[in-house]
Specification:
- Helix 1 runs antiparallel to helix 2, helix 11 packs parallel to helix 17 and helix 12 runs parallel beside helix 13.
- The chain has about 700 residues and is of the alpha+beta class.
- It has five domains: about 80 residues; about 100 residues, Beta-Lactamase, CATH 3.30.450; about 160 residues, Beta-Lactamase, CATH 3.30.450.40; about 70 residues; about 200 residues, Histidine kinase-like ATPase, C-terminal domain (Heat Shock Protein 90, 2-Layer Sandwich).
- The longest helix has about 100 residues.
- The strands form four sheets. A six-stranded antiparallel sheet has the order 8-7-6-11-10-9. Strands 2-1-5-4-3 form a five-stranded antiparallel sheet, sandwiched between helices. The protein has a five-stranded mixed sheet with strand order 13-15-16-18-17.
- The C terminus is likely disordered.
- Keywords: Coiled coil, Kinase, Membrane, Phosphoprotein, Transferase, Transmembrane, Transmembrane helix, Two-component regulatory system.
Length: about 700
């Protein structure tokens, strides 16, 4: 029934009651004649109708209320179902394992997915289990006490109870539990977290802190410059940490192959003497003397090792060896000895190895400090000696200064004399040219005349004048050539050349002379030689001088050999010591990668080692006059000593160099290096004289 219908029914009821009351009042007040029975009947009927309407209205209201109650119950049921689903979702989606136990019986009432995964049981398997069935037997008492504590206080916490899994393994769990009062029963809500790794990390941190504290104590006790004190303190602290009775330290000797006893504690004099007498060899098979990591040896009498057998004779049962390492270098070994067998854990051996590394650094620093002190004392001693010698040094410096002044004056004087010499040579050479030209021209003219009035003697005299003048002209030309090379007055004109062309031309030129003296000239490997850039005129002069020298110093019937090959930088580097003797600046100015090496070999008198550098100087000749041949190639006397100086200057003008290899009595080999690439020319002869330039004009 709606609200409007309720209001209408109430209005009808009120109206009926009003009419009925009005009738009763009228009946009471008015006479019976006035209040007719009909009116009385109407009132009664109206009252009956009102009661019926009221009855109907009351039934309708009750039905409506029942409908509303049913609707509210349905709404409440939906809310309850929604809450249950939300609870299940939160329970299953929780990041931690959640268990719900009956506080009185200990039966597991509820567990989420994370709890099943953590323990490895299914929900069906866990439904029949009690709370204490989830922990190890040794931990069940601790679990029961925690449940009682929850009942008394309403909540409890445990840092670690060991739970067992379905596969037999276990883990350490952290527990947070609280009591839930549901009125008719009490439940315990438990959250379990696997803290095995966290607990392990915590223990490891505590162990590292303990080790660090121990190392700090050891390092604090070794803060001294005395190496022996450092070693003894190290052994003492190590024995205390590992509950050992005796210990030794062997340090590596300078040879890096053996170790000598450096310190010991609680070791008998007899054992000390044995260990000191017999050094530990790093290359031996004994693990106690060649360890790179910690080793523990029990039952020492079973090991055929010097230190083990010596310790066993003294009653020791166990030796633990720890390498002492500075950075990555082994500097020694520490041994700790016990009277009983020991079985150290992996962590203890790791800590001992760490100690060895730290102690090794301390020992190495102490040794370096001792060495530094010794060197400092030596330095102070040397300083005192230097102070004592300071006066003598001052006197020596004054003398040296005076001597240097004298040397500088002498060098300046020598340079002046050299300039005068070059000036004189240039002047004389220039002045000789004019009269020589007249003499040679006149002699040649007279010889060419068909003058039958000349006797044989007169003609011979004219030939001598002509030959002598021609020889003198060659000497003057050589002098001028040397001066040009010294002053670089004649630039190198390079063209593409083949060495065989020059040699074959000279071979044809010298053929009559070679035949006359029955000498042979052979040119080997000429087909394998490449073209190169060079000054044809210079190189013809170079090989002309070398071949003349070879013919002059080679006996009749001898052989002259010319060979060539291409060499690179590596081949030249192998001869560096030899080449620097003849040209110290060659490697500084070297920029080519390949060179043509030419060898002119004779079978003459040879050249002594002390003369090999001098022969390239001006006016220097080798050998006794009696060993020279006669004529131009067989003359009775030495030459001017300019030929090899010219050869040196012309070759170096090409950016190459020349040297000789010889020994007295076994012939000589002259070598030339000519670059196969365009490179800047090297400095020529070191005696450059600019004063000679005026005399070269027009020559």
């Amino acid at each position: 029934m709606t609200s409007a219908r309720k209001k209408t029914a109430v209005k009808i009821l009120i109206l009926s009651i009003g009419l009925m009351l009005s009738g009763l009042i009228a009946e009471a007040l008015l006479p019976a004649a006035v209040f007719s029975p009909l009116l009385h009947l109407a009132v009664v009927v109206l009252l009956a109708v009102s009661l019926v309407i009221l009855k109907v209205a009351g039934g309708t209201t009750r039905t409506h209320r029942e409908s509303e109650y049913s609707h509210e119950l349905q709404e409440m049921q939906r809310e309850v179902d929604k809450t249950i689903r939300r609870y299940k979702s939160l329970l299953e989606g929780a990041g931690n394992a959640i268990f719900v136990f009956n506080a009185d019986s200990g039966i597991l009432e509820e567990v989420n997915r994370k709890g099943c995964e953590l323990l490895g049981f299914s929900k069906e398997e866990m439904a029949a289990m009690r709370g204490k069935d989830l922990v190890l037997e040794d931990e069940q008492g601790k679990f029961t006490l925690m449940v009682y504590r929850v009942k008394r206080r309403g909540r409890a916490h445990s840092d670690g109870i060991t739970f067992k899994k379905s596969d037999g393994s276990s883990f350490l769990g952290e527990i947070d539990a609280r009591l839930i009062d549901l009125g008719d029963e009490n439940l315990v809500h438990v959250i379990v977290r696997d803290v095995t790794y966290r607990h392990r990390a915590k223990l490891e941190i505590q162990q590292r802190n303990r080790e660090l504290s121990i190392l700090n104590n050891i390092l604090a006790g070794t803060q001294t410059s005395d190496l022996q004190t450092v070693l003894e303190t190290t052994i003492k602290e190590t024995l205390e940490i590992f509950s050992a009775e005796g210990g030794t330290i062997h340090l590596l000797e300078d040879d890096g192959k053996s170790q000598v006893l450096a310190a010991s504690i609680n070791i008998s004099p007899e054992l000390n003497a044995k260990l000191a007498h017999n050094k530990l060899q790093c290359a031996s098979d004994c693990r106690l003397s060649s360890v790179q990591r910690c080793h523990v040896l029990n039952s020492l009498e079973e090991f055929p090792c010097h230190i083990a057998m010596a310790a066993a004779e003294e009653g020791w049962q166990c030796i633990t060896a720890a390498p002492l390492v500075a950075k990555t270098d082994l500097i020694g070994i520490m041994h700790i000895l016990t009277r009983a067998e020991q079985h150290y854990t992996t962590e203890e051996l790791r800590f001992l190895s760490t100690m060895g590394s730290q102690i090794g650094i301390v020992i190495e620093q102490s040794r370096l400090f001792s060495e530094l002190n010794w060197k400092n004392e030596e330095l102070l001693r040397s300083h005192r000696l230097l102070e004592k010698s300071s006066n003598k040094l001052a006197v020596s410096q004054n003398r040296l200064r005076k001597n240097l002044t004298l040397v500088e004056r002498a060098n300046a004087e020598l340079e002046r004399f050299d300039r005068m010499k070059s000036h004189f040579i240039g002047m004389i050479s220039h002045e000789f040219k004019t009269p020589l030209t007249s003499v040679l021209g006149g002699a040649e003219y007279l010889l060419n005349l068909d003058n039958r009035d000349l006797s044989v003697e007169q003609r011979r005299m004219l030939e001598m004048i002509y030959n002598g003048g021609h020889r003198l002209n060659e000497i003057v030309s050589d002098l001028l050539t040397v001066i040009k090379l010294e002053t670089s007055a004649s630039p190198v004109k390079k063209v593409s050349l083949q060495l065989s062309e020059i040699i074959e031309t000279l071979q044809e030129q010298f053929k009559p002379l070679l035949n006359e003296r029955k000498q042979t000239l052979s040119f080997r490997n000429k087909e394998a030689l490449p073209y190169f850039n060079g000054d044809r005129e210079y190189l013809e002069e170079v090989f002309n001088e070398l071949l003349e020298n070879a013919m002059k110093f080679t006996p009749d019937g001898g052989e002259i050999i010319i060979k060539g090959r291409v060499v690179d930088r590596q081949a030249l580097a192998e001869k560096a010591e030899l080449l620097i003797r003849f040209n110290p600046g060659f490697y500084e100015h070297q920029s080519g990668s390949c060179y043509l090496e030419v060898q002119v070999q004779d079978s003459g008198i040879g050249i002594r080692v002390d003369e090999q550098l001098k022969i390239f100087d001006k006016f220097y000749e080798v050998g006794d006059i009696r060993h020279h041949s006669s004529g131009k190639h067989k003359f009775q006397g030495k030459g001017t000593g300019l030929g090899l100086a010219i050869v040196k200057g012309m070759v170096e003008a090409h950016g190459g160099m020349v040297w000789v290899e010889s020994s007295a009595g076994s012939g000589s080999s002259f070598f030339l290096l000519l670059p196969l690439e365009e490179i800047p020319g090297q400095p020529t002869l070191p005696f450059v004289q600019q004063e000679a330039l005026p005399f070269l004009t027009g020559l």
